[in-house]
Automatic annotation (TrEMBL):
Name listed for the protein in its UniProt record: (2Fe-2S)-binding protein
GO molecular function: 2 iron, 2 sulfur cluster binding; metal ion binding; oxidoreductase activity, acting on the aldehyde or oxo group of donors
Pathway: Alkaloid degradation; nicotine degradation
Keywords associated with the record: 2Fe-2S, Iron, Iron-sulfur, Metal-binding, Oxidoreductase
Keyword Iron-sulfur among UniProt keywords: yes
UniProt source species: Nonomuraea glycinis
Full-protein residues shown: 38 to 194 of 194
Domain 2Fe-2S ferredoxin-type: 5-81
Amino acid sequence: VTDTARISLKVNGVTHRQELEARVTLLDALRERIGLTGTKKGCDRGECGACTVLVDGRRIKSCLTLAVMQQGREITTVEGLARGDALHPVQAAFIRNDGFQCGFCTPGQLMSAVACVHEGHTGSDDEIREWMSGNLCRCGCYPNIVASVRQAAKEMS
Ligand code: FES
Ligand code: FES
């Protein structure tokens, strides 16, 4: 016997009704149930930040929370950043500054960067590095990621 729960998740403004086991993480619900595979699974244990999404505007690691706990909240994934053909300023800044190589960490970096700018943690490169430190990049794009966040902060201010 498995304990399933009937839940509804609001992701990028769209409500998704799901029946899933209570132990399913938000990350697995997004990727495997709802089909939003932009959010990446790196470590699946809170260390890499590849799975970062926004919940009610705050960044969280979606591998560390259960889907059932996020009902009624506004969840934003990387798929929800652009407005039609118009990239979010953070996405545009990552392209302009070569803020990625393989791109695997990028969705998480983008979500973290959006929050970092809104939190006002972009006063200096050191501050950006500190507040983006939960997002690892195996390709070592850190200088370009910092430059991207710096530019996005300027454009969003
Ligand atoms: Fe969630 Fe690595 S997959 S922090
Ligand atoms: Fe490859 Fe960051 S761009 S892991």
